[in-house]
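Design job #97: recover the sequence.
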């Protein structure tokens, strides 16, 4: 066998088939697939690598209509259950997607896995039993690529209870179903995944996935390692003046008196500037990220609540029992919880993103709340959460937070960035008596005296006072700004984080929408410093993201009005004389 690489033309073909392989659900032709073509595709699948050369796959060919109808009914039931669990905007988007072609294709192929094939001494499976399944998946990959080269579309369906499907196929108990594939000729292959064109999810750039030596040290081969913060800040640019002008001009032509949508007109103009298009995309689906962390300054007696409440409330968010869950359900938003620094071990459950940088901050009256490295790590956590949520298809991010004693850290940060007096920036948080309030102000004063924070060194200020959720929220805001996705800020904690984000990248303000004005006095100071106008002012002081979620329909309505409302000329309505 020739050991050298392939010719340029052959390599181009290999890379072409990899790039043009698609999961296909639409546009299948009914004509049967000739046996010799199917034979070639199956032989390609059978050449896949496998752990210990165990070749654990089998291929079950299904053409019988009645059987496929029974299987399609199983898939429909699971799709229905999945849809019932989706937040509003996601459920509407899911409705538009086609997720299986069981009956539209002439042949379905099930790829199974025998985890026992080869016996107990199968090389490599000893330490990692899951390598048996991995091997069958590689057979699927070969099949998928060969099928593309033959002009055959393949759609992978996974809306099944695995054992229910196994029973329908007469699979013995030691065989697992790995893939259910719908195969047939197609008229054309889409250039991009349907989930990308439908806006469900986006492709992550390859540079996000490549790390040098250790996880987190990102960088493509031959390129300088990525400095995540500098990269993020470099990606944040001013809003698009042309799109803003077009939006303002359209507002004036819409069938309503000029200016009659008040603040929402400004919101729509800002959304257009951020997106760089008029009208801007609708800010949905939306996801609230609740960043949870604990605070060493709690030891100073600044909150009447025990520190354990942070972890207990995280459990409540995940069980769907908190106010933010109720408000998000009403607004059709998803809630995700990020453990940045909760001082407890949290059970892994769906909806919890485990990103613990530390078990809470240190007491800032005794020393820095975190190291600079920790502050940087939390900033990067927040930015990556923003990135992942946007890649998952969200078009609006909403800040949430949970951290007993975090209004104390917020007050210190607000003083550090705005120069406000601690008595002006410190509030009563969850509700404290006069003595505790006086102590809280004194604690903030001591912290400021101890650290003499430099507002020109935002990472230093974050490290001095914490919390981890503030640093992560600052990264989250920067991430949203870099991706030009709006981020609705909740109250005083998000406000303090936004001060840090804007100190790092002044143009990040373009992505920020103030959801509400909290009852905490430091929040008003922050909003006026940032020049943000709150959309809701209901005296809320809960946090969690509650005020921001209430503002979500307002931000969405502002974008929708700009998109949907007729203009005087298009509707034939006479303008004011
Ligand atoms: C393990 C696996 C399971 C999948 N299950 C489904 C499914 O149930 N329904 C569906 O429509 N697509 C399914 N897909 C297809 C993916 O949505 C698709 O691969 C992805 O959007 C990327 O698009 P592309 O394959 O065209 O690059 C599955 C893909 C994989 C790898």
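Job complete. Output follows.
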């Amino acid at each position: 066998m020739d050991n050298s690489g392939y010719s340029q033309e052959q390599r181009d073909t290999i890379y072409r088939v990899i790039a043009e392989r698609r999961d296909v659900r639409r546009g299948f032709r009914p004509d049967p697939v000739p046996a010799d073509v199917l034979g070639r595709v199956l032989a390609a699948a059978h050449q896949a690598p496998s752990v210990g050369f165990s070749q654990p796959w089998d291929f079950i060919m299904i053409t019988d209509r009645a059987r496929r109808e029974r299987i399609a009914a199983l898939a429909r039931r699971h799709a229905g259950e999945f849809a019932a669990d989706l937040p509003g905007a996601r459920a509407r988007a899911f409705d538009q997607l086609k997720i299986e072609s069981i009956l539209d294709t002439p042949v379905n192929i099930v790829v199974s896995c025998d985890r026992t094939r080869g016996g107990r001494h199968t090389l490599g499976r000893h330490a990692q039993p899951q390598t048996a399944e991995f091997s069958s998946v590689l057979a699927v990959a070969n099949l998928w690529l060969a099928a593309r080269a033959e002009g055959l579309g393949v759609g992978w369906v996974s809306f099944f209870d695995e054992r229910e499907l196994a029973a329908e196929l007469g699979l013995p108990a030691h065989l697992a179903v790995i893939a259910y594939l719908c195969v047939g000729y197609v008229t054309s292959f889409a250039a991009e995944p349907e989930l990308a064109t439908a806006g469900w999810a986006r492709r992550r750039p390859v540079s996000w996935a490549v790390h040098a030596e250790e996880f987190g040290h990102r960088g493509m081969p031959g390129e300088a390692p990525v400095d995540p913060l500098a990269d993020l800040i470099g990606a944040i640019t001013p809003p698009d003046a042309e799109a803003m002008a077009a939006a303002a001009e359209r507002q004036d032509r819409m069938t309503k008196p000029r200016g009659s949508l008040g603040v929402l007109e400004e919101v729509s103009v800002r959304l257009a500037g951020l997106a760089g298009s008029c009208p801007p995309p609708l800010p949905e689906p939306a996801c609230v990220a609740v960043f949870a962390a604990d605070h060493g300054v709690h030891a100073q007696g600044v909150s009447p609540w025990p520190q354990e409440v942070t972890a207990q409330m995280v459990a409540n968010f995940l069980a769907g029992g908190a106010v933010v869950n109720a408000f998000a359900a009403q607004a059709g938003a998803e809630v995700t919880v990020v453990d940045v620094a909760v001082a407890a071990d949290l059970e892994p459950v769906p909806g919890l993103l485990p990103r613990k940088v530390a078990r809470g901050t240190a007491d800032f009256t005794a020393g820095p709340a975190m190291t600079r490295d920790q502050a940087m790590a939390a900033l990067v956590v927040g930015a990556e959460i923003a990135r992942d949520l946007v890649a998952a298809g969200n078009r609006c991010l909403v800040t949430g937070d949970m951290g007993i004693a975090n209004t104390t850290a917020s007050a210190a940060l607000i003083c550090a960035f705005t120069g406000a007096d601690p008595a002006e920036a410190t509030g009563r948080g969850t509700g404290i008596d006069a003595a505790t309030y006086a102590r809280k102000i004194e604690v903030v004063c001591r912290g400021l005296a101890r650290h003499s924070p430099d507002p020109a060194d935002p990472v230093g200020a974050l490290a001095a006072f914490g919390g981890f959720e503030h640093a992560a929220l600052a990264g989250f805001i920067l991430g949203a700004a870099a991706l030009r996705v709006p981020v609705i800020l909740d109250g005083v904690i998000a406000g303090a984080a936004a001060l840090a984000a804007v100190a790092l990248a002044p143009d990040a303000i373009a992505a920020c929408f103030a959801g509400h004005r909290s009852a905490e006095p430091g929040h008003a100071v922050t909003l006026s410093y940032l020049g943000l106008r709150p959309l809701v002012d209901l005296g809320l002081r809960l946090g969690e993201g509650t005020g921001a979620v209430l503002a979500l329909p307002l931000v969405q309505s502002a974008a929708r009005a700009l998109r949907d409302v007729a203009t005087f000329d298009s509707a034939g309505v006479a303008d004011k004389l």
